[in-house]
Design brief:
alpha/beta, 7-stranded mixed beta sheet, 6 helices, 7 strands, 21% strand
Length: 192
């Protein structure tokens, strides 16, 4: 595997926007002239079932087409998966573990033995309720991830969200998603 590939694994439950987040980040990378892949990994699961998504971003063409076993970052859209699903499996030492949680990163790091990772938290559900009016944490988590792992510009994310989301959502929903991503980018907490 080429060292210039950044790999991200997404964990969440059906209906939380894991697929959208993985694809959105890949599309933003393409808009910046990078190579990328974004895809979900699920079967016939229903709303609420655990699912995964994957994103690769690179300066060179991405030739592999498989699940990500050793990610640079893991993004967990639903903290109730902790202890149920081994979300940290294969995460590189000093990799980013980003959790949707109100709790302090240090508390979660201790509780789930995540000390060898850069643990970060953001209340993405609270932010999405405030800004969008629905508990869909995907766009805030993408914003928070870009603070932790700036593989693309946050401004390109905002532009891409406006362009993509305006095709199927009202201006209020589009701007709510942009505001949610912006707030999460600003409010993410890290265990230093």
């Amino acid at each position: 595997m080429s060292k210039d590939i950044t790999e991200i694994r997404w964990h969440g439950r059906g209906g939380q926007g894991v697929k959208t987040a993985a694809l959105l980040l890949a599309e933003v990378a393409l808009a910046e002239g990078k190579y990328s892949q974004g895809f979900p990994d699920y079967g016939p699961e229903r709303m609420g079932a655990p699912i995964r998504g994957y994103t690769r971003v690179s300066g060179r063409p991405v030739r592999m087409h498989c699940a990500i076993a050793n990610p640079d970052a893991v993004v967990v859209l639903d903290a109730t998966l902790m202890g149920v699903v081994d979300v940290a499996s294969g995460l590189k030492k000093n990799g980013v573990m980003l959790l949707n949680s109100k709790e302090a990163p240090s508390l979660l790091a201790a509780r789930f033995d995540l000390g060898k990772f850069r643990v970060m938290t953001v209340d993405a559900t609270g932010i999405s309720l405030d800004e969008i009016g629905r508990p869909i944490p995907n766009t805030p988590m993408v914003g928070a991830l870009l603070k932790a792992l700036p593989v693309v510009s946050i401004d390109t994310l905002y532009e891409n969200m406006r362009k993509k989301f305006s095709k199927k959502f009202s201006d209020k929903i589009v701007e709510g998603n942009v505001s949610a991503a912006r707030r999460a980018y600003e409010e993410v907490n890290a265990n230093e």
